[in-house]
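Hey all, sorry for the wall of text incoming. These are the two entities for the joint prediction.
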Amino acid sequence: MNDKNLKIMVVKIGGTEGVDFSRICSNAARLITEDKKLILVHGGSAEANQLGVDLNIPPRFITSPSGHTSRYTDQKTMEVFIMAVNGKVNSRLVSQLQEKGVNAFGLSGMDGRLIQATRKEAIQSVENGKRRIIRDDFSGKIDTVQADLLHTLLAAEMLPVIAPIAIGKAGEPLNVDADRAAAEVAAAMKADTLILLTAVPGLMKSFPDERTLIKKVDRKDITSLQEYAQGRMKNKVLGAQEALEKGVSNVLIADGSVENPIDHALAGNCTWIC
Amino acid sequence: MNDKNLKIMVVKIGGTEGVDFSRICSNAARLITEDKKLILVHGGSAEANQLGVDLNIPPRFITSPSGHTSRYTDQKTMEVFIMAVNGKVNSRLVSQLQEKGVNAFGLSGMDGRLIQATRKEAIQSVENGKRRIIRDDFSGKIDTVQADLLHTLLAAEMLPVIAPIAIGKAGEPLNVDADRAAAEVAAAMKADTLILLTAVPGLMKSFPDERTLIKKVDRKDITSLQEYAQGRMKNKVLGAQEALEKGVSNVLIADGSVENPIDHALAGNCTWIC
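and here's what came out:
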């Protein structure tokens, strides 16, 4: 890890409603003028759900036996997901950043095999209390992130903006959880800090009571956080854990709806795990 | 122009029905194993039209006073266009190429400001014989192509796959004609050859009689070709002319539906302008 690497910050922009792209992009633009090295990773679940509804391919979800929820991505849903996430959300972020003078570069994990994953060939799902095995799902577990490609973009003073689609062994697009993709990117880039921006101020002991926000967590206590995590927050805690285990120093789960959300998080208004 | 540059070939893959992505990708994959340097530029009109219909934002077209037809791209249509072209067509090509072992890298002209254009702020349109001025259209005229970015990808042994979306002065996405985008890419890369693959064998004196295919054209006679060009073929002839004027040695208008379409064109089965 050298001095240059230490400055890298990976910011994951949640795809849920309430996360304010414009504020995040403005904040990112200012940080870049201050020579910070940023990489953005985004989700797109709200857009993917809406596009699915509009195209009469409504979203479906899988609940694992341990209670994790993920998108059921068969071939048709994958097409919708790519259009929404890569075509709409990624392009919108790139455009907003370019408007603000940042030379953003949008890419997905398929491009140049940036994010390689292994397809989950059989997924256990619980429906109405019954277990079943799903075999036509195109989601994957990330194996590697090509850090060289991102270093090349950063060296050319570009801001990489990454859509959470990985590539499988057979060249097929795979849906990967965006929080965990951000964690893997942060780890591969030896980033100092990973910020997961979402629509709430962080992890709360008693959701949605914001007075119960868990502010500071020692990394050795992270497993205990899972008991407070609900829904998609579980993936954030998992992502945080992965990033920390792989060498990232700080993981912040923070509010993406406020003014200057990145500064706001770095000022300690978040769940800060280190 | 050095030896390396001379080998660059730009292939534009038409977005109309009949153009066979799988055959083109297979042919491209073999050429790359033979050390040819390729760049792909694609359209996506059929997909954009279909998605527009599915989303109840049907496509509309503008006819200029001189008879050129182009897509009417207001803000909503632009979103549909980006989803179809960048999200669907580009990702599909990247996936098909990766399946065949090619390290494809999809990007649009917005990424890293690859293709910069100036928005056409007022467009003359003829409807039912009457002229009107359209001011809410997001299409542009290409100013520059960042050749460095493409050289970087080629040097990393990646195959650039380019979606025809440019970036305007204010960071806004702009619809640009894919044939002319391919011509500008070929010119900026000092490509030796530009191949425009479409659903017909080339330009015909008496369309659709394939026996009237115009096989060989001297570049000084290119203006005379316009009289035979109908519909979107007019853009191909314009693109060919631009490419030749800017230093590209050969422009081939050829059939993208046959087996090994690139080899087939290079064997002379096309309209070859040089």
